[in-house]
Specification:
Blueprint: E1 7-9, H1 11-24, E2 27-31, E3 41-45, E4 55-61, E5 64-69, H2 70-76, E6 79-87, E7 101-109, H3 112-117, E8 122-123
Parallel strand pairs: 1-6, 2-5
Antiparallel strand pairs: 2-3, 4-5, 4-8, 6-7
Length: about 130
Amino acid sequence: MMTMERVTATPAALEMLATLRGKHGPLMFFQSGGCCDGSAPMCYAAGEFNLSDTDVYLGNLDGTPFYMGIEQFAYWEHTQLIIDVVDGNGGMFSLDNGTGRRFLTRSHLFTDEELAQLGQPAKVASP
């Protein structure tokens, strides 16, 4: 039986991650909940975004950890996030900005069977 992941990426997104990792070293993602850049997956150099004890670790994309605020997770907990890449400008604080391509979150609503395969996400400990 295949284990379901809360976050996954398309081959194009994994390729973009490899390119950005080559330029910036280890990376991290935080799913923006709105404000300046809408609800976009924001890519940062590892440690450049301060996590809090109310952030949730959803998994990783080729070694790149992916986080989301707990309030937003309450709305998305039944949904698999699929990180993709499309043409356009990235979020102004995200490392994809200026590349002509941007990360985009697509989604898949989990079935009851898929939900049963998921473990609980881990909350981030306070620094």
